[in-house]
Amino acid sequence: MIASEGTLLDETRVYDDLGRQPGPQDLPPDLEASDWWSDEMVREAGLPVTDVPFVSVGGGIGSFVTVDYLRIAGVPPEDIRVLSNLDRPWRTYEYLTRVSQIPRAERIRSDSASRPDNVWGFPSYALTEAIRTRSARPLWQVLREPDFADFYTPRLGMVLTGMEREAARIRYWDMLDTGQVRTVRRRWGGGYFTVLAVNEPGGPSRMVAYRSWFVHLAVGYAGLKFLPELRQFRDTSDFHRVVNAYEDHEHVYTALRQRTGRVLIRGSGIVASRVSERLISERKRHGLQTEIVHLFRTYVEGAHGPHPWSRRAGGDGFAYQGFNYPKSVWGGQLKARARRSEGRDRARIYAEIGGTNTAYRRHWQRQLREGKNGGWYRSLAGTMGDLQQGPDGRLRAYVDSDSSRVELCADYVIDCTGLDGDITSHRVINDLLRHANAGRNPIGRLDVSRAFEVRGAASGDGRIYASGAATLGGYFPGVDTFLGLQIAAQEIQEDLARMGFGNRIGPARSLREWWRWLRDRPI
Amino acid sequence: MVPTLLGRIQTRLFLLAVVGGVVTLVLAPVLPIPGGWGDHYRETFIVLATVAVLGVAWECVYHLLMQWRWEKDWPTLFALVTLVPEGLLVWLLLRAGHVPGAGPPVLAAFLWHFTAVWIAVWLVAQGPMRVPFIRWRFHGGRLL
Questions:
Q1: How confident is the model at residue A357 (pLDDT cuts 50, 70, 90)?
Q2: Tag placement on chain B: N or C end, fewer CB within 10 Å?
Q3: Which residue range forms the structural domain that includes residue A212?
Q4: Looking at chain B, which residue has its C-alpha nearest residue A311?
Q5: Is B80–A321 a contact, with Cβ atoms under 8 angstroms apart?
Q6: For the segment A166-204, what is each residue's pLDDT rounded down to a tens digit?
Q7: Are A279 and A245 contacting, i.e. CB atoms less than 8 angstroms apart?
Q8: Same domain, A218 and A238
C-alpha cells in the first residue's frame, strides 16, 4: 500500500490514542481551569456521572495486565472500568509490530516467561510451543540461551491469541468503555473524576464523568519520533520516500521489487535490524540488487562499558543485548539497585544501561556478513546533516562525521529512530502535570513511587497510578516491556490490596487462580 | 528468574528443603545404602544438608562470576551444569570423611540421590516455583 498523508494519519491515530487528537468538545471553562472539582461543579456542567472504584485509562497492554492482576486478586468486573479508544488492548502493539516487520507469524523480541496473558509466566511460551508442536526444540533453545543459542522468543500470533483468551476469561470486554479520555482531575472529598468523550453514532460526541477512588494511567507512547531534518523533508517534499519504520511503509519493499534502488537506514535498534533483515531477505528471495547504507549516529565498534564487569557486547555499529534492557532489570541485581537509587544516582544507572541496542541474532548476522562481502551493505558513522532532493529526483543525504561531510545518494530513507517519549505530548499526562500536582523524575518523565503511585497527586484516600513508557526514569527501569508492565501491575495491585481494594495474592490464592487459568475457567 | 545474592541463597535453601526433602524421602529407601531405612535416611539427609551448607558458599562464587556478565543474569544451563563441581566437591568431602555424621559413601547411591535432587530442584526453579510465589521472580529469587 502506498502511504498518502491521509493513510498515514489514519494509521497513526491507531496508537496516538490519547495525546494529540483534538477533543470532540471542550470542557466548560470553570471545570477546565479548576485543579479540584466538586460533585456540584460536575453536576452543574451537565456531565452524567458513573461511580466505579477503579478506572484504567489507556486500554492497551498496560491496562490489560493491570486489570488481569486485579481480577485475579478478586476484584469484580463491576468495580473496574477501562477507558480507551482501542477496541482491543493489543491493537496498537500489533500495528506497530506489523509495520516494523513483525507479522503474526514472526517472533517478537521478548522472553519466554514474559507472558502478558499469564501473570505467573508458567508455562512459558517455549513450554507451550513445545507441547503444541510436539517438539523439544523450543526447550532445547531455552536451555542453551543466550550463550550457545539465540534467545528463544515467541511468535507474535501466539502472544496475541493468548491475550484474547485471557481477555475473555477475565471479562475484559465487560469492563471496557470506549471513547477519548479528556482529563483526570482531583475531587473535593477524595478520589478523582475522569472525563471520557464518547462518540455517538451519527451525532456529536458527549462527555461522561467517572467518579473513582483510584485511577490508573497506561497511555503508552505519544507518537512517532522523527529526526528534525527528516521531518522537514517530509513537510516540504514527500513522505513517500522518507518513512518512519513505525508507519506502514510496505510500498518501499514493493517498489524495490520493480526497480533497483538504494535504501538508507537510520537507527541501530531492533527495528533497524528487522528492516535490514527484511530488505536482505527480499533481495535474496526476488533476486534484487537493492543496496543498503546503514547510518549510525553512535557507531559501536566492539564491547563497551566503564569497567570489566560492566561491558556490553557490540560490533559493526550495533550494541548487542538480548532484550530492551539487561535481563537483571526485571528481577535481579539491577532491579534491586535501581529500586534503592534516588536522583542523580538513578539517572546514572539509566545512563549506564541505556543506549539503543539490538539482539544478536545469528541468521541476521550471516545476512549482514554476506552483504558486506558482496559490497551491497555498508555502514557509516555520522549524523544526518541535511536531506534534499537532487536534480535527478533521487534523495541526497548529507552525513556529518567527525571530520567531514559525506554526500549520499539514496532512493528511500527508512528512519528507525523510534517512538516519542515526551510525556507532555500526551494531553492527559500534560494535564496531570498542570492540574494534579504530578511531577517529573530524574530523566524528565512522570514521577512515580516504588508502588507506581503518581507522587503528589493523591486525593484524600484516592490514588493515581501510572505504568508504562511515561514512567521511565523511576525506581524500576524496564517499564515499557511486557514484564515491566506486569511488575508495575503487581506493585499497584499490592498497594491497592493494602488499602482494602482486592485481596493480597498469597500462595494459596495464586495456586488456585493458576489452576483456573490453566483450565481456562472464567473469573 | 534472574537472581540477587540473597535471592540465590534463599531459593537454594528453600528448594533443597522442600523439593530436595520430598525427593529424598521418596528415593532414600530404594538406594543401595547398607543398613535399614533409618540409615538410608540419615545418610541421604546428611548429603542434602551438606549441599545446602556448601551451597551458600557456592552461591557467593556464582554471584561473583555473574558480575562479569553484562546482563547480570544466570542462564538456565549454568544452573544445571553446576551440578558437576558441586557434586564432585560433596563426594570428595564424603569420601575423605570430612562430613560430620556421614558413614562411608556408596558411589551409586550418591549419584542417584544427588542427581535426582539437583534436577528436581532445577526443574521447579525453571517455572513451577512461580505459581505459588508470584513475586519470587521479580524479587531476584527472594522469598522473604
A1: very high
A2: C
A3: 5-107+156-222+422-518
A4: B70
A5: no
A6: 999 999 999 999 999 999 999 999 999 999 999 887 777
A7: no
A8: no
